Amino acid sequence: MPANRRISMAVIRRLPRYYRYLGELLENGIKRISSKELSERMGVTASQIRQDLNNFGGFGQQGYGYNVEYLYKEIAKILGLDNKYKVIIVGVGNLGQALANYVKFEERGFVLCGLFDVNPRLIGMTIRGIEVKDIDEMEAFVKENKIDIAYLTLPKSKVRKVAEDLASWGVKGLWNFSPVDLDLSSDVIVEDVHLSDSLMTLSYRINRQMQKKEAQLKKLHK
Amino acid sequence: MPANRRISMAVIRRLPRYYRYLGELLENGIKRISSKELSERMGVTASQIRQDLNNFGGFGQQGYGYNVEYLYKEIAKILGLDNKYKVIIVGVGNLGQALANYVKFEERGFVLCGLFDVNPRLIGMTIRGIEVKDIDEMEAFVKENKIDIAYLTLPKSKVRKVAEDLASWGVKGLWNFSPVDLDLSSDVIVEDVHLSDSLMTLSYRINRQMQKKEAQLKKLHK
Questions:
Q1: Whether the predicted pLDDT of B8 surpasses 60
Q2: How large is the average pLDDT for residues B193-201?
Q3: Residue ranges of the alpha helices (H) in chain A?
Q4: In this complex, do B200 and A110 lie within 8 Å of one another by their Cβ atoms?
Q5: Is residue A136 pLDDT above 70, yes or no?
Q6: Closest listed residue to residue A30, CA positions, set A74, A71, A81
Q7: What are the pLDDT digits (tens) for B158-177?
Q8: Which of A200, A201, A207, A212 to mutate to test the interface with B (most CBs of B within 10 A)?
């Protein structure tokens, strides 16, 4: 794929979903799938799938469909999952601990190397054999171990400074769980996960549905 | 707002972000903001903001801008945050425990009422004063307490059945953390949080950037 080709974020965000569905097909022993069948399972149009995959050269064969394992592996490559990433977690509260214990990430190539916190009650504790270190030791650790990615589960007020530091020490990507959009000056890649945004979207949708139901009831009783 | 008005999911997903930014302005004592200023902070166009808010009747005044506190409260209402929601968590592993300990959600009206798991080692444990109960007791609990929302942090293989059950017992919304798209037959609202999709998007973007940098280097050395 030419490095200068622009691919929209919308397409990129659909790729992990393709990967997930293909993984499930593989688990179920399905070796081949038509774009029509895949589209029905995923709830998107077949032409959408073809268009999306054509961004990366296309992988289907007329009259045959997709070879599930091949497509799964190719999408893994596109997503960079054939690489290994050295990861640290900054902020080892409940969420940090949950992420540290999530072995699925490890299996996909995101290898946990270090845990950092400021809380003396947490420092010295071990998770999956990795000791929680004082955040003061982080700079040396990141530089020595050439850390690629940091998961950030810090309080909102602390996260920006830590993020800027990590970027200046050579970290390539930040997975940010703090409720702040990290727009940093450097070219580090930031992926924000705003859990509370998602919860608020849920409450909005619940309310809208209740309003609709009430409106329908009123109509019925007129 | 008329109940039958269609508002796009794209607009809806931006609302929590407005809410978050307005909350920060309030914290910093800012009482009034022009749409231009708000747009610069948020990295969206001023016309986008006006368009988005016009879906709900608009809140700005020509020449004055937005009253921050008023707009914050109005968006809270639109998001349904003036309501209280009774919440249970199903699956009290690391992530479930992290969510249970997240008091910010509680402050926004999502009141944790129950915790359920199948693991005998977890049953009987308490988090924030709430005892983890056997999942067998869930049906009675949900019906008696009229639970509104369930956070699902269960293994992929278990989640669909539990979700269908909860929906049939009257739960209105599901916040799903399992790596499955829950397309249920009932009209329960589902909000999926796919953490691994987000992490894969991060690795994709890191790889793309490295490819671009390599391409630039090659050009320089030609």
A1: yes
A2: 94
A3: 9-27, 35-42, 46-54, 68-78, 94-100, 103-107, 138-145, 156-168, 195-220
A4: no
A5: yes
A6: A71
A7: 999 999 999 999 999 999 99
A8: A200
Contacts of residue B13, defined as CB under 8 A and 6 or more positions apart, other chains included, come to A197, A201
From residue B213, give the alpha-carbon distance in Å to each of A4, B104, B216: 10, 40, 5
Residues of B (115-154) whose Cβ lies below 8 Å from A: 148-149
Exposure string for B19-32, b = 16+ CB within 10 A, e = fewer = bbbbeebeeeeeee
CA–CA distance, A38 with A65 (Å, rounded to integer): 9
Contact between chains at B204 and A175 (C-beta distance less than 8 A): no
Q: Which residue of chain A is at minimal alpha-carbon distance from B202?
A: A191
Write down the ipTM of this complex.
0.91
Q: Are A47 and A6 in contact (CB under 8 A)?
A: no
Cβ distance A105 to B199 less than 8 Å, yes or no, reads yes
Superfamily of domain B85-196: NAD(P)-binding Rossmann-like Domain (3.40.50.720)
Residue type at B95? L
> Å from B218 to nearest chain A CA?
12
Q: From A57, A59, A122, select the one nearest A89 (Cα to Cα).
A: A122
| Fold exhibited by the domain A9-78 | Arc Repressor Mutant, subunit A (1.10.10)
Check CB contact of A218 with chain B, cutoff 8 Å. Answer: no
Q: Where are the domains of chain A?
A: 9-78, 85-196
CB count within 10 Å of CB A147 equals 22
Check if B109 contacts A (Cβ < 8 Å).
yes
Instruction: State how far the Cα of B193 lies from the Cα of B175, in Å rounded to an integer.
Output: 7
Q: What is the pLDDT of residues B69-118, one digit of tens each?
A: 999 999 999 999 999 999 999 999 999 999 999 888 999 999 999 999 99
Helices (H), B55-188: 68-78, 94-100, 103-107, 138-145, 156-168
pLDDT of residue B174: 98
- Count interface pairs A-B at CB distance under 8 A: 189
pLDDT of res. A215: 87
Q: Are B141 and B88 in contact (CB under 8 A)?
A: yes
Q: How far is B11 from chain A (nearest CA, A)?
A: 10
